[in-house]
Each structure stands twice: as C-alpha cells, then as structure tokens.
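Weekly puzzle thread! Below is a chain. First person to post its structure in token form gets bragging rights.
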Amino acid sequence: MQNYVLSELDSGERVVSERVESVRSVSVGFWIGAGSRDERDESAGVTHFIEHLLFKGSRDHTAQEIAEIFDALGGELNAATSREHTVLYARVPDAHVATALDVMADMVLTPTFAELDSERDVVLEEIAMYEDTPQELVHDLFSEAVFGDDALGRPVIGSAEVIASIARGDVAGYHGDMYAGTNIVIASAGNLDHEELLALLERVERTRAGALAGSPPARPLLVQAPPPGLRFQRKDTEQYHVCVGAPGISRSDRRRFAASLLDAILGGSASSRLFQEIREKRGMAYSVYTFLSQYTDTGLIGFYVGTREENLGPCLEIAAEQIADVAAGNLRADELARAKENIKGRIMLSMESTSNRMSRLGKSLITDTELLSFERLIAEIDAVDAAAVSELAGLLLAGPRLAAAGIGPAEDVFRAAVGRMTPELEARAAAA
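Winning reply:
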C-alpha cells in the first residue's frame, strides 16, 4: 500500500511525499523538467553540465561546504540527467532533513556557477571516458539511428565541442528558463510528515522566491519518427557492440505493461529467451539484453549484444528468430507467468527502499504520468494476456521499423551481420 500526499506551493512547485514510519531515513529529490531533449543544437549538453555545476557552489555554500555538510550528516547526495528531466537527490537520517533541504534548495535555485572552467574539464574527461566505453556509447549511437536529427537522438552527456566553448551566460540563461517553480517537483519518502515537509520548504525557499519566477518554454514533441537508420563507429575493439530496435511507446500508453512483459520475456532476465539462447546454450556472448525507454510522446525498444566477429551474425539471427516466434504467438503459459512474477517481485522489493519510493513519486509527477497504487500496478500486470504481448512484438519490432547501430573494427562486418536479421535491414545495409 502506498499512501502519498500532494500539495502545491505558492511558487508553483509541486510537493509530494509518502510517510514510511518503519525507517529512520528520509529520501528527498528535487526533480526539474529539463532534459537533453529541451536543448538547442548549439547548447547540447548544457543540462548535464548544470547538473555538475549545482555541486560547485551556491549562494550560501561553497562546493567544499556542500560536501562537508552531507558527510557530517552521514547522508548521500547525488544527481542525474536524462532526456526529459534532471534530479538532485539525497538520503539522510530523519533528524537532519531540515539541513539537507536547505542546502539542496540553495544548490538548485541559486547556484553561482563557480569553478565553471575546472568543471568544464571534468565533463570533458567524462565525455572522453564515455567514448572509451563502447558498450555504453552504442546506445547513444542507436538513439541517433532511431531518432535522427531530433533532440532525442543526441547524447544526454553532450558534445565536447559545446562543453569546451559554452559561456557562463548561456549556462545561467538556460538555468533561469528551466529551473522555474512550475517546472519543479519536490518528492520525499521516509519518516517525515507532509505538513512538516511543507513548513520546511516554505522556510528555506522564502528568501529564494525570485529564483522560481517564470515558466519554462514548451517542449517540442516528436510528431513522427524519421525513417529507421543505420549508424556505425569504427573502433579497434575485441568485440562488436550492436543495438537493434525501433521506436517504442510513450509512458502514458496503456500498452506499457505489455511492453514491460515483452522486455522481460525477450531479454530482461536470466531466464529470458535471448540470454538463454545466446549466452547460456551457445556461449556466444557474455552480455546480451533487451532495453525499454519511455518518453512523453514516444519510446525506445531494442536489444544489445556484445560479441566477437564470428558470432555476430548468428547472434542477430537468433534474436530475429526469437522476436518472430513471440510475434507469432508462441508464448508458453509458464513463460508469461514467470515474467509477470518477475516484474511484480521487483516492484515489491523496490518498495522497501525510501529512495525508490521517492523516485517513483517524483518521476511520475515531473513526467505527468498517472501515479498508480501498488495494487493497481499488480492488477494491470496480471491483466496482460499472451495475445497482447505477441501483438506488441509484431507491431514494435517489425522488420520495416528496425534501426541498428554498431561499434567495432569493420563496418562491412557490421552491415553483413545486421543484414541477416530481416530483408529490410539487409536492403538498408546494402544501400547505405
């Protein structure tokens, strides 16, 4: 059972909380509706850059003071950026919530953007590290193959060219536009009463009200995905790293529960088809899995495999066979039941963490997604039948919709391998 309370401050910020009396911790997150898809091409990466700069000093605290305060609290402080939101989050003992909220509000609302050049170098090193991690980099390459020139096709981390040159005024301007009260959700879960949380927030934000003025610009939505593409980046790697998939469904689509089950059945667990057929039975890959992302207006669905050259074509053929088999309706009853229990079990276990409870609340509100009760979630999962999963597999992962991205030593090897999946990919690989 999840009981949450929702309020709105005079500044327009939404505040949501859930009291968990059995713990002595409180998890708090400041969720901002600013992600990489909200950036212009010439400022690609500024959202992630600001996430870093929030830690580098605020109106009332230096970077070192921020670090020392949370160390003294015995707390955890971190942040993350996605394509549609940014979050600064913390978990602290319940006795120290007031201190944590004061520092976090200062970081989010009144950053000084101090040490910009030194942190610029840190982000450039992060980009360089990312470039050296092909199993991660290929996912951004895949987003580009699916979404083309749309902002959803750009890496969240940004480009070295932009980060190396972006001016402080541009950073501050983007922060002023996006970090407005109506674009912020404050979520909390743990041993804290909602009214106490409101009182604390009203006190710590009273002197920062001016920073919350204004409204963010409207987010441009994807009207129609471009034709599926192929992307390849040459690197002298031991393995080929490949993603194949297509646009998925939005987070508000009722079919998202069937999509989660499709993900679990194809490659989302140790008993899934791709893991069993490719890794366990044939030993052709160490890492093989499916992935599922959902955005406001669209999504991503696909699979990843990292393997040596001689195994790449067979691995992709096996994946194509398994997708076709599911789409044809060949789902065993025990297979579907196991996937349902897997998802329900993971939801249940996540409820034991105040951080997960806070994230569920905050992410639902900042993305304007219906916040379903635990019981409703379980009921929606149980209601999905095999026909719905098979139909979705045939619809989303049909050959004409498939895009592919790869990283490895030779592009012709990659093209030959993906061409073995479907006639459409074969034609696309030959023509490009």
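Puzzle host: Confirmed. Bonus trivia for everyone else. The domain at 4-212 is CATH 3.30.830.10 (Cytochrome Bc1 Complex; Chain A, domain 1).
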